[in-house]
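Researcher: Structure for this, please.
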Amino acid sequence: MGIVKKHANRYVQQALLQEQRLRRLPNSQYFEIAPSWAIERSRFPRSYWPIAGISAGLKNWKVATRHDGARALSETISTSLNCSLMSSRALLLFNHVCASQLWLDQAYLLSAKPAELQNYVSNKVLLETPIPLGEINTLLRLPSLFLISTFASHYYAILALAQRMKSQLKISIVQPAVALKHLSEVRFYDRLAKLFGIDFELIQSDANTALVRALHALKKGRHVALRFDSLPTEANTFVSSELLGKPSIFPLAILKLSDMTQRPIIPIASVRKGTQIKLFLDNPVSVSGLHNQSYIDAAIEIDSFQTKYIRKFPVQYSAWFGVHQKWTRAEEIASLAA
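Model: Predicted structure, token format:
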């Protein structure tokens, strides 16, 4: 116990010194994307992280339960997983613990030594896919539209793909302005580009030009990556779908991007399993505009991937409010059509 305490104190002191150094950086917004507690704890050996995640997650959960939307989230989870409201509230607690783990991961990606980070991605991120391994590199050589499920380890998905590429990965990341602002100011993508040989282009999802820029990126031979719940502002026209057993909606714009460029949509989920991160890469979904049913079929196929992994790893899923919004919008559309 004495040795553990000695090492813990040493890591805390190192973390505090690093925090003081970061606070002196001009115009740094580091602490807005990675809280100071995450920076401190990311300096600990990874075996300490679960304790830090539980502590921070419990505090955040207590705050969230007083939020106006807390009951709606609990009801969404209860319906999705066919469980009681009490169980859904408990699951929300674990969701906040996983979100705290994500902060630790983000702090680690920003501060780990290059060799350490590259070694971690090489040895700890495992790929699971129905696609024959011999075909993956062929698939990745041509531009695709990666649709990433919002699980607690989604940043590692792109890094794992980059390590599989035989040539430089050229990818356009679509994210909201608030996220891109902070990530750019701390040079988050610059760091990953240097370490993993990735050519990043950043596209602001809440700008009116988002879909046009994504279209041009695909046509120029770049991959495009966006999260299911981080869709472009113009994505306000939908096709019907089904998500977690209920009528839902899917953005038509995402399907049109695939149709117009004849490039596939590849659903991705990246989750933590024990001490490893598992990257699930699904079969490509192709969209043909010959008839509307093709769009609906593609939307249902993509959302079935979502449903499968949300139900398999509900604790790590962090976009339940997005599910609630899609269900609500589908109900509104159905009532207007009645």
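Researcher: Any notable elements?
Model: The beta strands are 125-128, 145-148, 169-175, 198-204, 223-227, 238-243, 246-251, 265-273, 276-281. The longest helix spans residues 85-111.
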